[in-house]
Amino acid sequence: MGYGSYVAAAAEISVDGDKIKLHRIVAATDPGYAVNPAQIERQVAGSFVYGLSALFHGGITIKDGRVEQHNFDDYPSMLIKDMPKVETIVMPSGGFWAASANRRSASRLPPCSTLFLRRPANASAPCR
Asked: Is 55 helix (H, G, I), strand (E, B) or coil?
């Protein structure tokens, strides 16, 4: 995923008193060109970990004029056992290059066509 990508999502939840249980999230995304769909699915699921962590565990507490949380090691996040199933629908429009391109996926790209893999103007090697 990257700048310019869009995601729409819906969540299946149940409420029991003041407790909310997340059962499933279905998310559809337009990554432009889907260079690596499996990686896109993982990035979408990971974004929900951060968002749900902020929702359920978020907040910064102040004690004696200082923030109590020092780093991510003492900031709670969603655990795997608490995460709902995330189903990602990758719907590439082909309109832009937003998915990350690593060496493995870069070999499948058309030469010199992405924002991430542009050849420097002074390079003499073939573009790929």
From this structure: helix
What mean pLDDT is predicted for residues 19-33? Answer: 92
pLDDT over 80 (residue 105): no
* Closest C-alpha to 31, from 121, 86, 94: 94
The token pair at 47 is 């974004």
State the pLDDT at residue 16: 95
pTM given for the model: 0.64
Q: What is the rounded distance in angstroms from the CA atom of residue 117 to the CA atom of residue 5?
A: 18
DSSP state of 100: -
Instruction: Give the position of tokens 């030469």.
Output: 111
Phi, psi of 70 (to 5 degrees): -95, -40
Give residue 39's region: left, alpha or beta (phi > 0; psi -120 to 50).
alpha
**34 closest CA partner among 101, 115, 87, 119:** 101
